[in-house]
Write a structure and sequence with these properties.
512 residues; mainly beta; eight-stranded mixed beta sheet; 3% helix; 50% strand; globular
Length: 512
């Protein structure tokens, strides 16, 4: 399916360019390996709110954002400055500020907010074909074949599907709220242990407020699913609103943080923090002024007004509630004035004389190649039904740099199109044809065999060890690494060596 544009005011030529370039800014449009370079377009200040759909950089709402050098804020301190200490992953939800070229599909993130979801202990072992996960008997979360799984249980076992989860496992669940109130999981991450501060987190919308229950607490009724609701007590000084001074009203989407499952007693949850999670607040960054914002969510009609993820949207001719949309526009107070919107369906990309659909994309080196399966950025890829734009399965090797488009299903990316990138291509993802570095990508990993910034070293990412070498003008963020440092590196493949052009030391980081 093609993403359909409505009332955009853009020319048909621009729509055609967007369809051709997809979300990476370059695609093989005629099936012979020739790379299409998106038209030059100036990047502008922007804020985005959505789900990570691609890695090797991150792809959010159709734009591939470079993240080296960006500050990443932990979801438990959503409007603060506490750093997040794990790699970004497919299915996580984020809000970010930076610059974006919406035509070329590339951007540079400056600040990324992790939008925390549901956290707690599983109340029961999920069935093999589970459609619901129950958290602390307080919130039922919907899962489907597109839900991505990751992380490790307390016994060290890696979780890749719902079958890897057991009762009492600690989990962090990212997702989106549906029109019926259910929270649909886009990613479920098993945690080896619970964070010390907030062990329970719920997501939902306020349906009632009673500020007269007692003298020290407001009580909120929060709908956490189609069938679940929780009474939340926010008593001062033990409970705070985030951001400070926010006014919560009926209908407001919130995330509730509590110390533990024991905070829920007698049908009342004693909260520590109530976070407002509407896109207007999520895309407001101190000291940053954006030309436009792009948000994703479900349409909802209230009277004659239309809302997306709790935000009023004007200028869009929505006709049907419950449609998952991406909306681009500018803020007027708390209202988003739409200049462009489209229904969020599968994207398509040229594959020879036909089109193939995709939801997710990966950029990076091949690892663990076995038959028609391999890993990219730690994600299993099945290439059985893929169209090969450049090269073939027989020419694929561990360490080959590839761009893979497809859709996540039951823990693996079912590839619809694969392109093997080479270092001789004049095109790269920075649209800089003056260099011959080929396409660049980013990976997280740990450093070993480091002796100096001009010597070869090893970079271990998701269990795979890569030979790495800094280029002559490598840019270091946060100082030089040492052996054992966890880093985020941007670079390109030259043969079997990862050539690093930017390297950021990520203090405190670790794999999930």
């Amino acid at each position: 399916m093609f993403k359909r544009f409505f009332n955009t005011g853009f020319s048909l030529a621009l729509v055609a360019a967007l369809a051709a370039c997809g979300s990476s800014g370059s695609d093989d449009t005629n099936g012979d390996g020739t790379v299409y370079v998106a038209p030059t377009s100036s990047a502008v200040a922007a804020t985005y709110n959505g789900t990570i759909s691609g890695l090797g950089s991150i792809v959010v709402n159709g734009v591939r954002f470079e993240t080296v050098g960006a500050s990443v804020v932990d979801g438990d301190d959503l409007y603060g400055s506490t750093s997040y200490h794990m790699p970004l992953a497919i299915g996580m939800t984020v809000a970010l500020s930076g610059s974006a070229d919406d035509v070329g599909g590339t951007g540079q993130a400056s600040t990324i907010r992790i939008l925390g979801g549901v956290r707690g202990y599983l109340a029961a072992t999920p069935a093999a074909n589970a459609t619901l996960l129950n958290i602390a008997s307080a919130q039922s979360v919907v899962v489907d074949s597109n839900t991505v799984y990751g992380g490790t249980r307390s016994n060290g076992a890696a979780v890749t599907t719902v079958a890897g989860l057991l009762a009492n496992d600690a989990v962090e669940i990212y997702g989106v709220t549906q029109t019926n109130g259910d929270f649909l999981a886009t990613r479920v991450t098993a945690l080896p242990s619970m964070p010390g501060l907030y062990q329970l987190a719920l997501r939902g919308s306020i349906t009632a407020i009673n500020s007269n229950v007692n003298t020290s607490a407001n009580q909120y009724t929060v709908q956490t699913s189609n069938t679940d609701q929780v009474t939340v007590a926010c008593a001062s000084p033990g409970c705070s609103l985030s951001p400070s001074g926010v006014s919560l009203s009926v209908g407001a989407p919130v995330r509730v943080l509590a110390a533990s499952a024991n905070s829920l007693s007698g049908g009342v949850l004693s909260a520590s923090v109530l976070q407002a999670v509407n896109p207007r607040l999520l895309t407001s960054f101190s000291g940053f002024t954006a030309n436009y914002a792009k948000i994703k969510g479900l349409t909802q009609q209230v009277g004659s007004s239309w809302f997306v993820s709790g935000v009023e949207v004007t200028g869009a001719n929505f006709t049907t509630p419950g449609v998952y949309v991406e909306v681009k526009g500018s803020w007027s107070g708390q209202t988003l004035v739409a200049s462009q919107w489209y229904a969020e369906n599968d994207r398509t990309v040229a594959a020879g004389s036909s089109q193939v659909s995709y939801n997710n994309e990966l950029f990076g080196p091949v690892a663990s190649l076995s038959g028609s399966t391999f890993n990219v950025q730690g994600v299993p890829v099945n290439s059985t039904n893929a169209y090969w734009a450049n090269g073939s399965l027989s020419s694929l090797q561990n360490g080959s740099y590839v761009e893979v488009k497809g859709a996540m299903s039951n823990g693996q990316l079912l590839a619809s199109k694969i392109e093997i990138k080479t270092t001789t291509s004049a095109n790269n993802d920075d649209h800089d044809s003056s260099t011959l570095h080929g396409s660049q990508f980013e990976i997280y990993g740990s450093i070993s065999n480091w002796t100096s910034q001009t010597s070869a070293f090893s970079l271990t990412s998701r269990g795979t060890v890569y030979a790495a070498q800094n280029v002559a003008q490598v840019r270091f963020e946060h100082g030089l690494p040492v052996n054992g440092s966890y880093v985020e590196a941007k670079g390109y493949m030259q043969g079997s060596t990862f050539m690093v052009v930017k390297l950021e030391v990520k203090n405190g980081y670790h794999d999930d």
